[in-house]
Amino acid sequence: DGGITQSPKYLFRKEGQNVTLSCEQNLNHDAMYWYRQDPGQGLRLIYYSQIVNDFQKGDIAEGYSVSREKKESFPLTVTSAQKNPTAFYLCASSMGRLENTFGSGTRLTVV
Amino acid sequence: GIQVEQSPPDLILQEGANSTLRCNFSDSVNNLQWFHQNPWGQLINLFYIPSGTKQNGRLSATTVATERYSLLYISSSQTTDSGVYFCAVGGGATNKLIFGTGTLLAVQP
Q1: B99 at interface of A, judged by CB pairs closer than 8 A
Q2: For residue A1, is pLDDT > 70?
Q3: For testing the chain B interface, which of A99, A101, A109 should be mutated: the one with the most B CBs within 10 Å?
Q4: Which of A13, B23, B58, B81 is the most buried (most CB within 10 A)?
Q5: CB–CB of A88 and B41 under 8 A?
Q6: Helix, strand, coil shares of chain A as percentages rounded to 5?
Q7: How confident is the model at residue B51 (pLDDT cuts 50, 70, 90)?
Q8: CA separation (Å) from A77 to A10, A15, A31, A36?
Q9: Mean pLDDT, chain B, as a whole number?
Q10: What is the model's pLDDT at position B88?
């Protein structure tokens, strides 16, 4: 079955550490996205990529970095510069103007 | 950018009741999706509906693009319908989504 796989489901980060969240899709979608969700809030866009080797900042990109070396993969790194990284992170993909499909998310907690 | 407003923010129903959720948006869009977020956080795509009307079982949705709103209808609600319902829209050259703040639905037995 085609879909989006995010890993890990739960991640704990110490202060000052960088961590990388994985997002892989086998839907052959061109575009991929990373969103952040805080408790009781909607989702906000962090970064997006419309084609391989190209990506753009979303609304809340500070403290995050991404890469898009392969069509199937769009990893997100939460750097130590992100002051409040505890959140639920969701990855999505789409083809053209059609619907976005989401992964099951990663919960990141700073300890 | 496009603003998305959802109403009501919270809704409590008895099992079997019907409900209507509303999504208003501030500009023309070429993508509109309704999602249900389950208690584990997964976003389940209910409808892709930039215009027109669609039905899927007990759920249906209508988007009136010229008047910039969309409605999600839930009929004969069940406890498994509980969760947060999000409306998200996209416009312009990309398909990135802008989310509303959601409607928290609780269906009581």
Answers
A1: yes
A2: no
A3: A99
A4: B23
A5: yes
A6: 0, 50, 50
A7: very high
A8: 15, 14, 18, 13
A9: 95
A10: 97
